[in-house]
Amino acid sequence: MANPESCRFAKSHEWIVAEGDAAVVGLSNHAQKEITDVVFVELPKVGRKLKQGEAAAVIESVKAAFDFYAPVSGEVTAVNPDLPGNPALVNQSPHEKGWFFKIKPSSEAEMNSLMDFAAYQEFLKTAAH
Fold first, then answer.
1. What are the residues facing 89 on neighbouring strands?
2. What pTM was computed for the model?
3. Closest Cα to residue 53, out of 35, 67, 40?
4. Where are the domains of the chain?
């Protein structure tokens, strides 16, 4: 679904890629490796309006529970129907089958404010582990 090089990234490790008038959102490969085995995902409801940086979903791994934040403001237009029954897709295929939801962004400026792939790779080198 999403080649990582074509995605934009938030500092909280969510990726987003434009797809028509909507955008697909997921968790970065780096983040899924850090949190290890995902065992549960709670997705937002279709139609929910999110603000950039707002907790949009919950991810539970064998380590702990984590909030998943909206990388941009907008309305949720779809959720991944396969994820609740198979949360391991987040680990197995974070940029293809493990996407979380689709959103209709309300601000192009917010999309443009996110890091591109190269900037995200640099951010990972300097981020505290």
1. none
2. 0.94
3. 67
4. 4-105
pLDDT at 3: 85
pLDDT on residue 128: 61
- Percentages helix, strand, coil for the chain (3-state, rounded to 5) are 25, 35, 40
Confidence check: pLDDT of 10 > 60: yes
Return the CATH number of 4-105, one of 2.40.50.100, 3.30.950.10, 2.120.10.30, 3.40.1030.10: 2.40.50.100
Q: Tokens representing 78?
A: 């779809």
In contact, 8 and 114? CB cutoff 8 Å: yes
CA 93/CA 24 separation, integer angstroms: 14
In sequence order, the 6+-apart residues with CB closer than 8 A to the CB of 15 are 2, 4, 7, 8, 9, 25, 26, 27, 28, 71, 95
How many Cα atoms within 13 Å fall on the side-chain side of residue 77? 14
